Every structure is written in C-alpha cells, then in structure tokens.
Amino acid sequence: MRTTAYPSTAPATDDDAWIQSSCALCYGSCSILAHRVDGVVVKIEGNPESAVGKGRLCGKGVSGLMTHYDPHRLKKPLRRTNPRKGLHEDPGWKEISWEEALDEIAAVLRRLRAEDPRKLVIQRTTTVTASGMPFRAFAGAFGTPNVSTSGGGIHCGNGAHLISGTMHASWSIVPDFAYCNYAMYFGASKGHAAGHASCSNMGLAAEARARGMKMVVIDPMANFAGAKATEWVPIRVGTDAALALAMAHVLVRELGACDFAYLQAKTNGPYLIGPDRRYMRDSASNRPLVWDRSAGAARPFSDVAATDMALEGEYEVGGVRCEPAFAKLKAHLAKFTPEWAEGVCTVPARDIRRLAAEFAAEARIGSTITIEGVTLPYRPVAAIAFRGNQGHLNSNYNFIAVDLLNQLVGAADVVGACLGFNPACAGFPETGRLRYVPKADADGLMVAGMWLGFHYPYPPTEPRAPQNLGLQDLFVMGLNSAFLNSADQEAYWRTFDLPYRPEALINFGCNLVMAIGNAETVAQSLQRLKFMVSFDLFLTETSRFADIVLPDASYLQMTDSRSNFPFMFSLPGGMGEWCWPIRQPVVPPDGEQRPFADVLLDLAERIGIGADLNAAYNAAMNLEPPYRLDPDRRYRYEEICDADLKNTFGPTRGLDWFRQHGLIKWKKQPQEVYWRAFVDVRVPIYWEYLPPVWEAIDAICAPRGVHVPRAFYEPLPDFLPCASHRCAKPDFDFYAFYYRDIVHTNSFTMENPWLDEAARLDPFSYAIAINADSARRRGLRDGAAVWVESETGRRVQGRLRFTQAIHPEGLGIAACAGHWSDDMPVARGKGVFFNELLELDFEHLSPINLSLDLCARVRVTLVEEAAR
Amino acid sequence: MAVSDRHFWAPAPPAVPDADIASAATEVRVRLFGALAPAGLPQPVVLRLAPPATVASVLASLGRVLGPERVTDLADTHGRKRRTCRLFVDGRAVDEVETALVPGARRTDIEIIVLAGIEGG
Ligand code: SF4
C-alpha cells in the first residue's frame, strides 16, 4: 500500500502562522491567507499579493473554515449495509478501514477494466477546480471517456464555453474593466461575486463603475448584477437571442455602425459564400475565396490585403453566384426588426434601438489608444453573457447573437472591449513555459491556444456513432451531457448500439440528485449502477446511493500545484499580472481523512494501472524531460506537484519554494492582453462549418430514427423557442428560473452555518421572487406558501417574496436549495429545490450542444387552495 | 486598425533534418497506456518505419496493431489525430501528425494515451 506521511504542520503550542493557499468554496480558487493558531484555523483572508482575488474574498470564502470544521465531516470510510438504494433509503452506514474500502473498490475496478473500462463513470464537482487534473489523469489511465462535472458543468457552460472558445479562445468572456465604458450583461454575473475570477472581477467591476462605466444588465431579474447596474432591462426568460439579433439589425441595417476594417481583417465576413451555403474555395489551395476589390477577382483570402476584401456585393466566380459572408449576415438580419423582437422578448422596440445606438456610439469605432508605449485599437464596449443566457434550448444562438454585437463593432480582445480570460501568454520569462497563443487553421479561423480539456471548441471533432455514454462524440458541439443521468438514456444507448452500460460511478463531491434535474430521474440512474463510491466531506442526498463513502480532506488540508491553471479559466483578464498560486495544507487531515489525489494514486496501484496513471499525468500536465514521471516508479501526489512546478518554473522552484512563497507572478504585456491585433486569426460571423456538422450527425441519427433539428445548426443565428415558450396550458403563466445566489455555491455551501445565516437575512435566498403586480393580479400574497408546478406535473413548495425587480412573467429561485437529508441538518428544509422542475431527456436538451433547458413554464397555486 | 507584428508570437524555426541520415529507416518503440493498452498487448510496440517517417505513419501502423475500433480513438477518418489522443515523441508533446520523426538508426520512443475530452464549470 502506498501511504502518505503528513508533516506535522500544526505544533501544539506557539503556533501562529499565516499560510498562503487557495480557496475552494467555489471554482474561482481565489488566493487566501489562512491564519492558524495552535493548530486551529481561526481566520481566512484574501491574499493581497495575488492577482487571483486581489486580496478580496467573498462571503463564501471567509466562511470556508465553517465548512472545514463542520461537525459532520467524515473521518472514516463508510460502507452501506442496506442493499436497497433510494432517495429516502437509510444506507445503514458501517465504518470500515481504508484497507477494506480500497480493496473492495479496487476489486470492482479491476473487473470492470478487464471487461470494458468505459463501464466506469467519473463525476466530479466543479467547485474544486484543481480536482480536474487528478480525475482526468485517473480516467485516462483507467481508460474511460465517461467523465462529467455534475450540475455546475451541465448547467453552466455548454454554450458559453464553446462559443467563448471559438470567438475569444477562452473559457468565458468579461469586459475589459479598466477601460470599458459601456458593458452589456446578458444573463451574466461577472464582477458580482460569482463566476470565473470572481473576487478579482468584483473589485475591477466596482472600480469600473466608480470610473463611470455604464452597465446595462439584461436579465429577467435585477439581482446581484442588476442591483449595481446603470440600467436594468427586464427580458422574458430565454429570449436573449431575439434582443441581441434585433440590436445587430439596428447596428448593421439602420445605423451602418460596423467596424468594417475589423470585419475584413479579423472575421470570415469577406469569405465568399456559394448557393450551397459553403465557402467558395480556390481549386489549387482549397482556401476560402474573397473578392479582391483591387484585382476585381476572387482570390484566396491569404493572398489579399484585408482592406481590399469586399464585404458586400454579389459576384460570379467560375459561373457560380456568390456573396461575402457579411452580405449574407446583413440580409439575414433583415427579419429581426426591433418590433419583431419586442413581441418575443418584451423589451420595447424603442429601447432596443436606443441600446444599439448607445452601444455603437460608445464603441468609438476607428479609435486607438496607447498603453505602455503600444498603440492599440480602442473599443470601450462589451456585450457579455453567461449561464442565464445560455442555459436554454437555444443556448448556442443565444450566445452567438450576443457576441455578434462585439464582432460587429470590433470590440473583441482589444482595449476596453469584450475580453477572453487571457487567451495568449508569452510564457514565464525564465523558462519560456506556459507559452500559448491562438493560431489559424487552414481556413484562417482561430484555434484556441489553451483549453481546459481536450474537447476544443474549434475545429469541431468529426461526429461518430457514439462510444461515450454522454453521446458527446456524436453531438460534438456538446461538453457535459445529461445522458449520464437522463430518463431516456437507455433508449438512446440502445438506438446507437452502445456496446456497454455504466456499472460503476466514482463521485467526487457532487450532489447529483440535486444538481442536475428532477431528483427522481437522477436517482433512478444511480439505482441502475451496480457500484458507487463517493469522496465526500460530509454525507449528502447523493452519498446515500454510494456503496462506499471515502472521507475526503478539505481544501485546507491538501496540496495542489495548479489551483488556478489554465489562466483562461479564472485569472482576471485585462492588464495586470500573470499569477500562479498553489494550494497547500494549513492543517493536517483529521481522523482518517485523506486527500483524494493520493487515494487515486493508491487505487491505481491496487488496480494495476500505476504506470498508466503516471503516463496520464505526464500527458495531462505536459511534463517534459527531466520532469516526466517514470511510468514504473511510484509517486505521492506532492512529488507530482513538485515535478509540475519545476517543469514550469525551473529546478529551483519546486513545491518547497512555492510552500514558502505561495505564488509566483510576473507582469502581463499589452501584446498578450490585447493579442487580437497581433495574431493573424479570424473568427466566424458566418458559421459555415455547422451545416456539415449537422449532416454528419444526421447521417448517423436519421437511419436510427433519431430526429436532430437542422434549425439548430444553421450558419447564421436565429431565435428558437424553449419548451417553456411553447407551453399553451391555461394558468401556466410564469417562467420559473434559478439564479446564482452570491452567498451560495450550488448546493454545497447550504450546510455552512455562516452562509445559512447570511441567506436567512436575505429576503430572497430561500424564497420565490415574484413580480408584485403580477402576483396581486392573481390574488397571491407576499409571504404566502405556494406550490410551483411544471407543465409536466412536477412541483415544489416555497414562500413568495414580492418585488418589482423581476420581469412580470418571471419566477426567480435562488441557487440549489431545498435539501431534505438528515445528514445536512443546517441545510435541510431551507429554500426551494428548483431543479425538481426540470425534465432530463433529449427533448429538453439543446440538440446542438446538449445544454439543459433551465427554464420551466409553471403554475403558481396557494398551498391552502391546493389543499382544498 | 493595428497591423500584425508577428515577431512577438513567431514560432521557433523548424529543425532541419540531417541529409545523411534522412534516408534510413526509423525504429520506433511505442508504449501505449490507458484504454490503448488492453491486457495481453506486448509492450512496447516496435515499429520500423520507412522514410519519411512522421507521426501520421506511426498512427497508421498502430492502427493495424490495435484494430479498427481503437483507431477511432487515435485519429478521425481523415487521419487527423484526435485532440484527446496525447502523443509524446521522446518526451515532447506532438500535436501535428505531419511532424517528422528524427530519421536514421536512432531509436525514437513514443508514448500515447487517450484522455477524456470533456471538462466543465
Ligand atoms: S469567489 Fe469562490 S474562490 Fe473566491 S473567495 Fe469566494 S468562494 Fe472562494
């Protein structure tokens, strides 16, 4: 057995130390200083030395020690004695030794690996960002492609990440707070205590507002971002594409307010499109053709100066009529008038025109600015979006339509504009490592230089008959997939002749039965598994389905060499510093708690995949000689972290150096932050490659009777309604949605007593926000207990809270609340379990990127009435 | 519009192969891990590749060893290496299948593993 000796970091007396480490109460991973006195963590503060958080913590971060010292923390492995599994079954836990636990797990995994390693599923929480690396390595070593990131993953990013990656080479987008003068937020909370680079962005956003940045928040509810906004624009749930397309209509067709130089040089706007909706291509080089206005002829884009490329007009090339992509876009936008959009999204047409005109004026098209001696394009406007915008059936177009506003005025990764999070890095100066930059493919379109996994947003992977349980190898524009837990999973697996079924689940900290959709469907998927092991801090509703529960170490008890890498995830964008902090133990594990990464190494050895795991770490961390792990040697996770750090920062900066210094940082250069001007890549304003993706998917699906709507794969964005928009049932007159509560991370922090107290002080955290006028018209009372019932008959109970700060048709529910397990006594019975209203089946997934439709058309009934 | 200033991001110039050894066959030892290494597969897989040997020729030869089902994990139907297929030549990551192996009698060690593509958050 491989064991880990923990240094005694906590002498019994005279111990008074501030330890530099990283928070893990959400995926922001802000840098912290943990104050330890006599072996006890007494306070957590932000680390002002770090660019990750910039010395700030949110309420969750300062409350982290209450999660760490939760009296219900697990201290020994548990095995269930009750073979029946169910939402309300008592597992009959019995404490067992680590030896017993790991032997039993290893026996199951050895059998599965011999039969078919794909029978193993790994789910991990997004909260501990650094868990990505060890679980990615373990999955690769074991040989399963079936990994997922639970609710945080399925709900958050399938549209946002793919489109941000395609357009900005980054996981997400944010205004360039230091220079932006006009930011439009479409269902995003960047800078308002949630999301990527959360605490850093809080400070940056506050400074930007104080400087005078106008912030327009388009959201069904004026909550955290809306409360700080210059203007809140209430919008019907899930209709962002309609508003954004109407604004694009005004920019292009009414105002002619476009950055034509940008469109010529940095987009595929000039590429000629034939009647088959595909690029016209040069017969010799196969490169897309543009119309060269100087030569009066079609030529490969790479042979023509951008300023000579036509964006409009009709041309004939080899007898074929064609138009530039921009002309196609302009014609396409004709139908999206503000008057049309008003009928869809409820924002008045005159406001749409005003917002578009403001956006255009503030963009200062054609202007430049000099930063640190470098003259750069200056476009101080940004339209950003995130979960609220993209958590719908129309996820893809919702996000594309919003980013189109940036592209039209050239406000992409230039000063003041919409930025990706650090898509280009010239590398750590002393070693040259960490150097990455977007590059062009043969069509001139941008390929991200760095990505969080290996499912790059562009170019799309070739669809194949699915081998993955989530079907992402068929629906290649999808990231996380609900098919791991959906009601119709078996039907689809059978349809596609999937040659295996899941048998075992390794769960890391996810509360799946609450985090994905309605509990019943997820529970049934867990019941179908033969074996489940769960790494947990404390028992949850989901641990009840486990056969074995392992007591995990908390973030204050573990080491990680890359708590905040890659930089395009959570290091703030804009000028400032590159910063690489680590996580290190502040106190040792209690009882028999063990850090998950070491447990995975131990398990790998017992299964006989130790060499594979070392190779997987080499591959996942990009370790190079002399720091590559020897496949045939055994390592502790700290040794792997040491190799990772030396590989990146040189032989003198291993784990010991980082334990002492906490982090390393160096200055960003303008050419890195505003890379778009320096890197010869283009992005699509005409998504020429989507119809062929649909054709390839349809060729696999149609013969099996699976209909994949083509409308989701068109080259130009559209508004496509959610199931909730199509509901015609009488009395179902509200759109229920959930939003991130800034005092909670998904369902996880509900058990933290300080955060619970903060949530109870907030009138909305545990209530159902409803428009006061709409509610009164229906005879509802402020504070009344109500049933919220979906059109499919699922229902949850909660208390109404009247407000004017919500759309008249909206019903806003905070976070992922409503725990029912006795194992979570603080959280139990608090708040409303919104996800119970969500169906988990193909009909409610985006047929292009598998995003789950996160809105539900509902009826609201007084509990007392329902009882009568 | 600011124009390209390529020097800041210019890639390192490609290595020029030695003409004397450019015509010799290359011995490649491939060690496979994870899903690519079913029980019973003798390791390493030794390939002798005629010049000009590239990563593409390694993948094509491996396809014959591993069989059609596993090959789809390595490359798509156009022979393009999948992003999830992580391939290291003498310890250095290689992404482009056109990458030439150092020609000549010198042994080349390759490690390949397939990692899950998906992440979230
Ligand atoms: S934003 Fe997230 S990582 Fe940062 S302090 Fe708050 S909980 Fe911790």
What does this 3D model show about the protein?
- The complex is a heterodimer of chains A (about 850) and B (about 120).
- Chain A has about 850 residues and is an alpha/beta fold.
- With about 120 residues, chain B is α+β, with helices and mostly antiparallel strands.
- Helix content of chain B is about 15%, strand content about 20%.
- Chain B contains 2 helices and 5 strands, in the order ββααβββ.
- In chain B, α1 (about 55-65) packs antiparallel against α2.
- The termini of chain B are far apart.
- At the A-B interface, α4, β7, α5, α10 and β18 of A face β5 of B.
- Iron/sulfur cluster binds next to α1 and α7 of chain A.
Would you state the CATH class of the domain at 158-420 in chain A?
Alpha Beta
Number of strands of chain B: 5
Calculate Rg of chain A over CA atoms: 26 Å
Helical fraction of chain B equals 10-25%
| Oligomeric state as shown | heterodimer
What is the string of SSEs of chain B from the N terminus onward? EEHHEEE
CATH H-level superfamily of the domain at 158-420 in chain A: Dimethylsulfoxide Reductase, domain 2
Task: Briefly note the CATH topology name of the domain at 158-420 in chain A.
Answer: Dimethylsulfoxide Reductase, domain 2
**Within the CATH hierarchy, at the fold level, what is the topology of chain B?**
Ubiquitin-like (UB roll)
Q: Biggest interface, which chains?
A: A-B, 72 and 39 residues
Major β-sheet of chain B, in short? 5 strands, mixed
- How do the strands line up in the largest sheet of chain B? 2-1-5-3-4
